[in-house]
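Task 17 of the worksheet. Students: predict the tertiary structure of the chain below and write it out as structure tokens. Keep your answer in the requested format; marks are given for formatting as well as content.
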Amino acid sequence: MTCLGNGYPGLRGPYLAKLEICYRMKDSDTDKLQELLIDYIQVFGSRPVCFSDIKKYLKAVPAQQRNDFILRLRDQFPDQVPATTDEIYREICLSGIERFLGKHLGLSTDVVERMVTGLLDRYVSTQPLVAHMLDSEIRPSDGYIVIASHLLWEKWMDTRANRFFMLATAMLRLGLTYSPSNWQLMIFLVRFYGRVGGGGLAEKVHAALDVKHLMLDTLGWILPRILSSSGQVDKLDRMYAATSRFYSHSPKETTEYIIQAYKCGNFPQIVDIHGLKRRIQHSFLVPLVEVERLILQLAFKTEDHPQAVSVIGYPEYITPDPIGWAHLRDNRDFSALRSYEPDSLDTSQQLIESSFKGEVCYLKLRHFLLKGLVHCLFISDDVLTFSGDTPIEAVDLNALIAELGTQQARSEERRVGKECRSRWS
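Model answer:
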């Protein structure tokens, strides 16, 4: 591997292979691992992927040796104003490593303000190095604003001081002025605006992301709750309509792609497209968007009782598509925003799974709420609706009550099970 790395210095594979071997060895020498990490940063620190490449191996550095490791890095790579874009990437990588290893934990307000000021000064001083880049390119110096935004978000959450929010949003706006295609800055700005209930501002920033097609399934979950909590009903209705169209058209579109692949004899692609089709069909956002859209129409788009009664005459209210609860899957993408967080604060897989379970429970509650509203309106007045050619004159209220009772019993069983596991653990 050493010979291969020397013969082809641009290849990351040999260096990563040595890191992986050292990482997997039992009772491995952490000093050797740290040396390999420093060598890797020396060779590939000028690439944007450096931090993501070594993030896994940084976890193996013992907690009591992390400060010494950071000092070794700073001795090897002094903290000075970068003179090239390669040095910008390396500097941001080193700042991300410091944050990942816990150097940014428990900082005082004065220290955070000095660090943010230093990062902002470094961002401004490096602008001449990236002035030649196109607006469609992501500038290397944007990483300074991303790290500063992480610091300001934490301090704002801790102190609730408005100046941290104002400074963070101003910095992100400044970054988007020079780098309007940087999705990380956009998502961070949406996060700040959403926290204060700025649904209209968040929607404007989110529109620049141009989330469409498959991205509606992976990133479409970011904005709806912000719009809902801030009362942006019209914007929320338009977003639900766009997402619902995507989910209703995707089976036809994927089928067409499968036919084209079959005609070309590309059978492996047929398998991939079929897997994508199933992935989209089983997304928990499919029923969630539909249920939320129907509740929105019923609660906010109707002006009086007769209009609400006429609305529930549509088939999607009376005979909705069944939800395959056991087959729902989570397609949300949590990696769009680069994270330098240490393990204690990072979004773990366990947290994602717990969030998904909570989303499914929320979907069930909204599903039963919609059913309850429809049943109440149905029995309160004469509703003219059809299932095919057959008129529907009544709803089965007993079936709804039985279904609610079943869900309550299951919830009680899960609660008792959790109590028993907690007692024995």
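Marker's comment: The two ends are 46 Å apart (CA to CA). Residues 420-425 have pLDDT under 50 and may be disordered.
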